[in-house]
Amino acid sequence: GCDFGNGGFAAVAASLAANCALTSIDFAGCETAGAEGWKALAESLTINCVLTSIDLSESRFGNGDFAAVAASLAANRALTSIDIGGCEETSVESWRALAASLQVNRVLKSVDLSCCSYGNGGFGAVAASLASNCTLTSINLRCAQQRPCA
Fold this sequence. Notes:
By secondary structure, the protein is of the alpha/beta class. Helices cover 34% and strands 13% of the residues.
C-alpha cells in the first residue's frame, strides 16, 4: 500500500487538478489518505481533464470519504477506468453516490467493484444506475457481497 505520511496524499491529490499530462495513477492500498486527502482527490477529479485511469483498490476510506470521490465522477469528463475493488470501508450512501454518478457520467467505460461489500440498498442502487448508463462496457462484480457496511 501507499503511505504518504502527514498531508502527503492530499498534496499529491490536489496537484492532479492542474496536471495536464498524467493519464494514469495508482493509489492502490492507501490507508493513510485521511479525510483531507480524499476530499482533495474528489475536488481534483471534478476538474482534471486528462487522467483516464485511477486505481483506488484496497484503499481505506473513512466515513463519507468514498461518497465524495464517487460523487466527483458525475462531473469528471476524462476518466475511462476506475478500480475500487476491495474497498469495504464504505457506506450505503457511498454506493448511492456512485450510482448517481454512473447515471450521468458519459465517459467511464470500466468500473471494478470486485470484492466490495454493499449494505442494504447499495448494490440495488448501483444495479439500477446501469439501466441508464450507455457508456460502461465493463463492470467487475467478482466476489461482491451484500452485507451491512460499516
